[in-house]
Design goal:
The structure holds 2 protein chains of 2 kinds.
Chain A: E1 2-3, H1 6-14, E2 21-28, H2 33-36, E3 44-52, E4 56-61, E5 65-71, E6 74-81, E7 83-86, E8 92-97, E9 103-110
Antiparallel strand pairs in A: 1-7, 2-3, 2-9, 4-5, 5-6, 7-8, 8-9
Chain B: E1 10-14, H1 25-33, E2 38-42, H2 63-78, E3 82-85, H3 98-112, E4 116-120, H4 128-142, E5 151-155, H5 161-165, E6 170-173, H6 178-187, H7 189-205, H8 207-217, E7 219-224
Parallel strand pairs in B: 1-2, 1-4, 2-3, 4-5
Antiparallel strand pairs in B: 5-7, 6-7
Classes of the chains: A mainly beta, B alpha/beta.
């Protein structure tokens, strides 16, 4: 992954407009947040393969960045994004990493379902 | 005491790559070096690990492939010759049907006929996947006739271990395999760096601090998990 460049991420987002898209959305402070890192509790929310369609997509902010996707019937939103990658399959991966390189948030878009197991891909 | 001798077969049941090494590699090594054949059931590929490196060397989609390779390297370092991947997904194990997960474990138990199973101690594993897989392991062991049941060695992760479970049944001195233990832990490069950076700093700070860290890594503790019908 590389640091988000706003024009390139915007262009990549626009390619997903108006079609069925498979969404990976995740935010987490880690399963050990309370045990090891002194936070009040572990918090995580996670969607693997939400099938969505959105008509408007916008990246905004200045490191970290925010991305909002506007659907007919609602919104998808992620905050704290720092890095992005368009992988060999044309999937757009965005993530927010803290200063120690730990993932805190991820928003990913694909035209095909995200694999349920890396073993499937072998 | 070391207390580790060759046994018929050692079965390790853990949900994530690195669980078999962090806190346990020394004991596994003592068993395998004594000539014990060992099988590892690894439930997931740690797909939701958070350590991606700085700058990131992995992303959400490449991380499980990296961790699978690290796991294979760790198995080599540990002398674990038989690796079974259940293909479950990180952080979802507790939402599976426990009987289904127990079926998968029972199948391996019946095949390799272990005398000892190492897993987490149910309810005290901190991570929900640890507790779900140890629970399923106990379910699988319960299905065996009493006289055929392996002894289940549980690892307790909660900080107040002795308060909630009592004194450990096995306190294993692993100092004789210290370097090999570190090699197995370091095979999990993607996770080791994030988790042990502070420990490495401490070790570098003074000879006394270094001795303290080495002493704490040289002992591993286990509690026998009661199998109640």
């Amino acid at each position: 992954m590389q640091p988000i460049r706003i024009e390139e991420v915007q262009a990549a987002l626009d390619k997903f407009l108006g079609q069925e898209v498979y969404l990976h959305l995740e935010t987490t402070n880690g399963a050990y947040a309370a045990h090891r890192f002194g936070q009040p509790m572990a918090v995580c929310a996670y969607i693997r393969n939400g099938k969505v369609t959105f008509e408007r997509a916008q990246v905004t902010g200045s490191k970290p960045y925010r991305v909002g996707l506007k659907m007919d019937i609602g919104w998808i939103y992620a905050e704290g994004l720092t890095d992005y990658e368009i992988d060999g399959q044309g999937r757009l991966l965005m993530a927010g990493h803290d200063e120690e390189g730990r993932l805190a948030v991820a928003l990913q878009l694909s035209r095909t379902p995200w694999p349920m197991s890396a073993l499937e891909e072998e | 005491m070391s207390g580790v001798e060759k046994t018929r077969h050692l079965l390790l049941v853990f949900p994530h790559p690195d669980d078999e090494s962090f806190g346990k590699a020394g004991t596994v090594l003592l068993f395998t070096k004594a000539g014990t054949p060992a099988t590892l059931i690894c439930g997931t590929l740690g797909e939701l690990g958070r350590n991606m490196g700085n700058p990131p060397f992995a992303n959400r989609e490449t991380l499980p492939k990296i961790r699978k390779k690290e796991l294979e390297d760790a198995c080599k370092a540990l002398g674990v010759g038989d690796l079974r991947l259940l293909g479950l997904r990180d952080k979802t194990v507790e939402f599976e049907d426990p009987e289904y997960v127990a079926d998968r474990i029972e199948e391996v138990i019946r095949e390799v006929n272990p005398s000892i199973i190492m897993t987490y101690y149910p309810k005290y594993g901190v991570h929900p996947d640890h507790d779900a897989l140890s629970h399923a392991t106990v379910l699988a062991v319960k299905r065996l006739p009493k006289e055929e049941r392996p002894v289940v060695w549980g690892s307790v992760v909660v900080r107040n271990a002795e308060e909630v479970v009592g004194k450990p049944d096995f306190v294993i001195d692993v100092s004789s395999v210290f370097e090999e233990k570190m090699a197995a832990m370091k095979a999990h490069k993607s996770q080791y760096q994030g988790l042990f950076a502070r420990m490495e700093e401490q070790m570098a700070s003074s000879p006394e601090a270094r001795a303290e860290v080495i002493a704490s890594l040289s002992t591993e503790r286990y509690w026998v998990v009661p199998i109640e019908d």
